[in-house]
UniProtKB/TrEMBL annotation:
Lineage: superkingdom: Bacteria
Full protein name: Gluconate 2-dehydrogenase subunit 3 family protein
One Pfam family cited in the UniProt record for this chain: Gluconate_2-dh3
InterPro entries: Gluconate_2DH_su3 (IPR027056)
């Protein structure tokens, strides 16, 4: 089976566009703020819960090769502290805030049941096994008798991914410049790119 290699795009593309008139002022302000946001002090989660969620998200979206880490957790804390939702939830799930609190407790229970340690003390391989158990609804622990583990995993992964790719540095990784929409989009055919869209760098391999 052929292994797919990730696409590589030039660094700095989104940051350069933010300095142009191809981005609305509101979008520029929002993305610039994400680039300079200082360390976040949790307001919804306790310090221990925030650290646990950070450790979990670091396995869901590993950032080993990155010189500047993207914070995927603070926006979740801020949303829940503001009691904001996307307007729906599975009928098998509690409200978002309660789901996160219980889900984090459930992951700790699973880590303890499977390896006798807290999640943060586990190796990367062990952490992944715990999360795979949650994803497949096979993780042990009493919390998962009251809330479907796989639904919690689905919701957490989706929000962590949304948080990651809302950051300009993550958008640069995938060549995304959809926020630069002031000039409109004229080149909409297959494989057609606007001049402001980055071109993929040829893989040296």
């Amino acid at each position: 089976m052929k292994t797919l290699t990730p696409s590589v795009y030039p660094a700095g593309t989104v940051r350069a566009l933010l300095k142009t008139d191809q981005v609305t002022e509101a979008t520029r302000q929002a993305l610039t703020e994400r680039l300079k946001t200082p360390p976040h002090q949790p307001t919804f989660f306790s310090a221990d819960e925030f650290a646990l969620l950070t450790a979990i998200c670091d396995r869901l979206i590993p950032q080993d090769g990155r010189s500047e880490r993207i914070d995927t957790v603070s926006s979740i804390d801020q949303r829940l502290a503001g009691n904001k939702t996307n307007g729906w939830r599975y009928d098998s799930m509690p409200a978002d805030g309660e789901a996160y609190k219980r889900g984090l407790q459930g992951i700790q229970e699973s880590a303890q049941a499977m390896f006798g340690q807290y999640f943060e003390a586990l190796s990367e391989t062990q952490r992944d096994l715990v999360l795979k158990g949650v994803q497949s609804a096979e993780a042990p622990g009493p919390i998962w008798q009251t809330m479907p583990a796989n639904r919690f995993f689905e919701e957490l992964l989706a929000e962590a991914t949304e948080s990651y790719y809302s950051h300009p540095l993550a958008q640069e990784e995938i060549g995304y410049v959809g926020m630069a929409d002031v000039p409109a989009w004229q080149r909409i055919g297959l494989n057609q790119l606007e001049h402001r869209e980055p071109r993929e760098i040829a893989n040296p391999d």
